[in-house]
Specification:
Number of strands: 19
Radius of gyration: 21 Å
Shape: globular
Number of helices: 13
Structural class: alpha+beta
Distance between the termini: 41 Å
C-alpha cells in the first residue's frame, strides 16, 4: 500500500474542499483533496448563484476571485411578488451598504480548480472506498483506492466536505452524532435557459398556486424555479408547461415581458432542513453539506459552507503557524451557532413564501399579514436584509 502524509486531508472536491485547500496552501499548510467523482462531473453541477459578502471576500483572499469581480453581478436588492405587485427589499440601505454577488456555483468551482492548478495543488479524482481511521487516536489516516491501487494518507487533521451522502459524517459514532431534520412537503422544479433574466434583480413570488423564483447567472442565462409536489418528476413538465405555470405566479407586468426559450437543464430538488452535531470528532471536522442542509429559499447553502471554511482556515492557521489550538477547539460551537441562525432564516423565508398542502384559510391570511407587516416595517426589512447579505463571521 502506497503511504504518504499531509497536514490536512480534505474529503470532497467541491467548492468547500477546494476553497479550504487553496486558502491553506497560500498560508503554507499542506493539503491533499480526495474527490469521488470526475472533475467534469463536479463542474457539471448546477447549484446556487447568490454569494454573501463574506464569501465574496473569502474568494478574493484565496486568489480565486478575479473572474467573479469581472463577470459577477452585484445586486443591491431583490423583489418579493405578492398579491399581483412587486415590493423591493433594499439590501444596501437596510444592511449598512452590504450587497450580494450573483455568480454561479459552477463558476466558483471552475475558478477554484484553476487556482489549485496554478499553485500545483493536489486533487485526486475518482477516489473509491474511502475509509477514515483512528480519528480519536494518535495516527489519523485515510485509506482509499485510486487508479486501482490501495493508498493511505496520514494526516494531522481530516476535513469532511463530501456532502450529505459522503462518508465523513457517517464516520462519527452513532452514540455521539445528533441529527436534526425537517422535510418540506414540496420541491423546486428548476430550469436553466439561455434567455434574458425576467428582471435586473431576483424576484421571489408568493402565490396561491405556489412559490416561484426568477433568478439568473448572467445577462443571457436565467434560472427559474416553481414549487411542485414531491410526487412530480422533471420529465412530467414540458418547457411550455413550465413557462405557463411560472407566468401564472408572477405579476402581469413581469410575465408579459418575460423571454422564454428551451431549457438546457431541468431538475427537481426536494427541500429539507438538516443539521448534524457536533461538527468535530477528534481529528475530523465536518464542513458544508456534510454537516447541514438548508432550503434554498434564503440562498444559504453554499454561503454556510463558506463560513465553515472561514472558521476552519483560521483554526488551522492558528494551529500550524502559531501553535494555538483554540480556534479548532471552538470550531463546532462557533460554526453551529451561525448554522442554526441560517436554518431559522431559511425556514422563515420558506414558510413566508410557499403554499403548504395543509394550510387553512386562516393560515393563508396570516401568511399574507406577515408579508404586509414586512413591507410596513423598517425593522422587519432590516432583519431580512441583514440575514440575506449574511450574518458576520
Amino acid at each position: 500500500m502506497q503511504t504518504e502524509s499531509t497536514q490536512v486531508a480534505i474529503i470532497g472536491g467541491g467548492p468547500s474542499g477546494l476553497l479550504l485547500s487553496q486558502l491553506l496552501h497560500k498560508a503554507g499548510i499542506d493539503t491533499i483533496v480526495l474527490e469521488r467523482q470526475t472533475r467534469d462531473y463536479v463542474l457539471g453541477r448546477i447549484r446556487a448563484g447568490v454569494l454573501e459578502t463574506g464569501f465574496v471576500e473569502l474568494l478574493r483572499k484565496s486568489g480565486a476571485g478575479a473572474r467573479m469581480d469581472r463577470e459577477g453581478e452585484i445586486h443591491h436588492g431583490f423583489h418579493i411578488a405578492h398579491q399581483g405587485r412587486l415590493d423591493r427589499i433594499d439590501l444596501a440601505r437596510h444592511a449598512q451598504g452590504q450587497t450580494v454577488m450573483v455568480y454561479g456555483q459552477t463558476e466558483v468551482t471552475r475558478d477554484l480548480y484553476e487556482a489549485r492548478d496554478a499553485m500545483g495543488g493536489r486533487v485526486l479524482h475518482e477516489v473509491q472506498d474511502v475509509v477514515l481511521h483512528d480519528l480519536k487516536g494518535a495516527q489519523p489516516h485515510v485509506t482509499f483506492i485510486h487508479d486501482g491501487a490501495e493508498r493511505r494518507i496520514n494526516a494531522t487533521f481530516i476535513v469532511g466536505a463530501d456532502g450529505f451522502h459522503g462518508v465523513s459524517r457517517k464516520s462519527i459514532p452513532a452514540d455521539i452524532l445528533r441529527e436534526y431534520e425537517k422535510v418540506y412537503p414540496f420541491g423546486w422544479l428548476g430550469i436553466l435557459s439561455e434567455t434574458a433574466p425576467a428582471a435586473p434583480e431576483l424576484i421571489y413570488a408568493r402565490h396561491d398556486r405556489g412559490f416561484a423564483l426568477c433568478s439568473m447567472r448572467n445577462s443571457r442565462l436565467s434560472r427559474y424555479y416553481i414549487q411542485v409536489p414531491l410526487s412530480d418528476k422533471a420529465e412530467d413538465w414540458s418547457d411550455d408547461a413550465f413557462w405557463q405555470e411560472l407566468k401564472r405566479r408572477l405579476p402581469e407586468s413581469v410575465a408579459e415581458q418575460m423571454e422564454t426559450g428551451p431549457s438546457i437543464e431541468k431538475s427537481i430538488a426536494p427541500l429539507r432542513s438538516f443539521v448534524a452535531e457536533p461538527m468535530r470528532y477528534g481529528a475530523l471536522f465536518l464542513a458544508g453539506d456534510a454537516a447541514h442542509i438548508v432550503p434554498p429559499t434564503g440562498a444559504k447553502g453554499l454561503n454556510l459552507a463558506a463560513s465553515d471554511i472561514h472558521y476552519l482556515y483560521e483554526g488551522f492557521a492558528d494551529y500550524f503557524l502559531r501553535g494555538e489550538a483554540g480556534g479548532l477547539d471552538t470550531y463546532s460551537a462557533k460554526a453551529l451557532a451561525r448554522v442554526w441562525k441560517a436554518e431559522r432564516f431559511s425556514w422563515w423565508m420558506t414558510s413566508l413564501l410557499h403554499r403548504f398542502p395543509d394550510m387553512s384559510p386562516a393560515d393563508l391570511r396570516l401568511q399574507q399579514a406577515d408579508l404586509d407587516y414586512l413591507f410596513s416595517s423598517e425593522a422587519a426589512q432590516t432583519s431580512l436584509a441583514e440575514n440575506y447579505v449574511g450574518l458576520p463571521y
